[in-house]
Amino acid sequence: MKPDELRSLAQKESELRKSYRYRINVCCSSGCMPFGSLKVLSAFKDAVREFGVEEECYVARTGCVGTCSLAPAVLVEPGDYLYQNVTPEKAREIVKEHIVGGRPVKSMLYGNEAFFKKQLRIVLRNAGKIDPLRIEDYIAVGGYYALLKALTRMTPQGVIEEVALSGLKGRGGAGFLTGLKWRYVARAPGSPKYVIANLDEGDPGVFANRTLAEADPHAILEGMAIAAYAVGSQKGYIYVRSEYPLAVQTLKKAIEAARSMGVLGDNIFETSFSFDVELRLGAGAFVAGEETAILASIEGRRAMPRPRPPYPAQSGLWGKPTLINNVETLANVPVILLKGSEWFSSIGSKNCTGTKCFSLTGKVNNPGLIEVPMGITLREVVFDIGGGVAPGRRFKAVQVGGPSGGFLPEQLLDLPIDYESLTKAGAIMGSGGIVVLDDTSCMVDTAKFFTEFCVDESCGKCTPCRAGLYKLYKVLDGFTRGEGSVEDFSKVEELCEFIKEASLCGLGQTAPNPTLTTLRYFRDEYIAHLVEKRCPAGKCFGNSGGGGVE
Amino acid sequence: MSKPVELTIDGKKVTAKEGETILEAARRNGLYIPALCYLEGVSSFGGCRVCVVELKGSPRVFASCVTPVTGGMEVVTDSEKLRRYRRWAVELLLAERPHVCSVCVANGSCELQQLATELGVDHLRVDREWTDYEVDLTHERFAYDPNRCILCTRCIRVCDEVEGVHTLDLMLRGKNSKVIFDLDENWGFSRSCTSCGKCSASCPVGALYVKGKPLSEVKKKDLVSFIMERRSEK
């Protein structure tokens, strides 16, 4: 593709988009699809035809808007009218009233403005507004312009500097400065170099990366291409879980479309830069999201982490310098190049710029996918965006960072969300999972649950994680039945310290967090189990719950 | 490759080769760091975490068998914390599967047993597991008892890197990990196994052993390092 072709295509497509008075975006991501969004989509198409408004109303199959509790969700532009729980019958009514009659159907609208008010969408800029299967849609909203800019007006060095100045940190959890990582790979001797996009999002209840891939796959591809140009790579891999069939399909089609459009392949935009991307599917291991385990898996070996150094930047895939970035990190890159590092670093907090996507789940009124500026407090996320817990229930704890994230109590809710503050409090940024618990949850039982998950997902390589976590699980399991004594706490804490400090990879190093934080902030519940032999939440001691027996 | 690197181990100045690990440098200089999954002559695994050391200026601990030396590094190989961690590692390994020394072929020549003695492990603070793996006696000369396996993968690495066969590998994950022959065949039916015996010679415990003899009677010199040395001499 020539630069001019991109420009004229973008102009043509955006004019086409403007030529419609209305645009109906039907969410067809894995959140809404099980609720019949494909039927809703065809109902909209039928209704538009029935009422003869095809010329002025475009019906698009899009990705997620983030409000998963409203499935199937439909967004009508202009005005961003969000309809909830749309059925094929309701679809006809929406077309009749809203499109033909010009009166939004108030009874079906999602009335909760607060969910969106504190959000800021950079990564999810196009989610729910473009058709992920049409590359033209992405180009119409400025897609691949950043790549064009990088290739024609910037040096690889310049791209790295821009990303470094933006302060962007790795969104996969560790929070390493992206620009610095790129610089390491660019400077590392050896060729070829590889770029890997990490989409192995294995945490239960976390779906941010999946949603991104389903809603805006080209943002990932464009980010990868820019990264490849910056570090001097010609070959990229997207490592995606095979449990994400829709994301895999969407990415596959996106790669094909990008190749036929010429934004992937040889001599992109008539420059000397060539880059191609392949998909690699994970075989269902949580630990495979660890960067050195990804390398092993792509090479065709058992997904076991290996010690670093050497870091992948020096010796990665097949011993070659390799850049591994989370897809959310990569999706930030095109925007940074277009709007500038200064703009990006003005968002968020001082040491932690930009935004972060969170999967907000658990006992919260508005679950869904959110994107918020860094530095926002947990209270704002849980109560303003999430709408708090159900009426009559009391907020108890929030888990941040996936299965190995710590649980934070009410008094820590004013903590700003950034890597440092979370780690200090015993939680982690992790993959961006936020699970809200109310007073129906038992903290001992919850700690046991998440420890069990990590026991199952340990790769088995190192002793602390493989044998230690299982022992920790057994002790916690005993606690939920009232077995053990308060004297065991120090043993548990000592074991946790060993697992945390001596484990080889991030899985073991963070897996004791749920236990440690619940012991720290909810010790009274442990004591209730062991001394009073009762569960305050009524979960443990058999189904009826010891707490219920008064 | 062989540019000398200066570092201190427990306050003692030592010279190491560039690219060498802390453990190798320590051993070549006659300094002792306990280790278990490490085996001279084959690649390092970094799994058992017995060989952990502290580095001045870092709050973390490092497995010395996989941490390369760097100039000016200050290594601490013995401290209250390290002894505590090593004890946990050994205790957890002992508790993970039914290790009953009195009925084990390796009794008296077992590296895990020696470590336990050395670290003063006279009781376990966690419950023991009583796994019930079938003992594989199908090979005419060797036997395999997964209940005694500590998953150090020495046998796998020796089979792959020294014998060049890769009969052995790991199956499943986490605490269910198991060393298997070929695609989980019985040993006697393995088509790739050359019956060379290097795996049993490198087993630190009594999981892979020569039938009919206690380990103390089997001549068990440092077989692997001996082979590697002879090969490199040519």
Distance between the termini of chain B: 21 Å
CATH class of the largest domain in chain B: Alpha Beta
Largest interface: A-B, 31 and 33 residues
Please give the share of residues in helix of chain B.
10-25%
Structure summarized in a few sentences:
Chain A has 550 residues and is α/β, with parallel strands linked by helices. Chain A has helices at 3-19, 37-50, 88-100, 114-117, 135-140, 145-153, 156-166, 178-187, 208-215, 217-231, 245-261, 291-298, 327-339, 341-345, 378-385, 419-425, 443-457, 463-480, 488-502, 506-510, 513-521, 523-530, and strands at 22-27, 57-62, 74-77, 81-83, 194-199, 235-241, 276-282, 322-326, 355-362, 368-373, 395-400, 407-409, 433-438. In chain A, the strands form 3 sheets. Chain A has a 5-stranded mixed beta sheet with strand order 10-9-13-11-12.
Please name the defining characteristics of this protein:
heterodimer, A: 550 residues, alpha/beta, Rossmann fold, 4 domains, disordered C terminus, B: 234 residues, alpha+beta, Ubiquitin-like (UB roll), 5-stranded mixed beta sheet, 6 helices, 24% helix
Outline the structure in words.
Chain A folds into 4 domains: 12-117, Glutaredoxin, CATH 3.40.30.10; 142-345, NADH-ubiquinone oxidoreductase 51kDa subunit (Rossmann fold, 3-Layer(aba) Sandwich), CATH 3.40.50.11540; 355-438, Ubiquitin-like (UB roll), CATH 3.10.20; 443-548, NADH-ubiquinone oxidoreductase 51kDa subunit, iron-sulphur binding domain (de novo design (two linked rop proteins)). Chain A is an alpha/beta fold and 550 residues long. Chain A is 43% helix and 13% strand. The N and C termini of chain A lie far apart (74 Å). Chain A has 22 helices and 13 strands. In chain A, helix 7 (156-166) packs across helix 10 and helix 17 packs antiparallel against helix 21 (513-521). Chain B starts with a strand and ends with a helix. Chain B has a 5-stranded mixed sheet with strand order 2-1-5-3-4, with helices on both faces. In chain B, strands 6-9 form a two-stranded antiparallel ribbon. In chain B, strands 7-8 form a two-stranded antiparallel sheet. In chain B, a hairpin with a 6-residue loop joins strand 7 (168-171) and strand 8 (178-181). The longest helix of chain B is centred in the middle third of the chain and has 17 residues, at 80-96. Chain B is globular and about 50 Å long. Chain B is α+β, with helices and mostly antiparallel strands and 234 residues long. The chains are: A alpha/beta (550), B alpha+beta (234). The A-B interface holds A 285, 287, 302, 306-307, 309, 455-464, 466-468, 470-471, 474-475, 491, 494-495, 498, 501-504 and B 45-50, 52, 60-61, 63, 66-68, 84-85, 88-89, 92-93, 95-96, 125-127, 151, 169-170, 172-177.
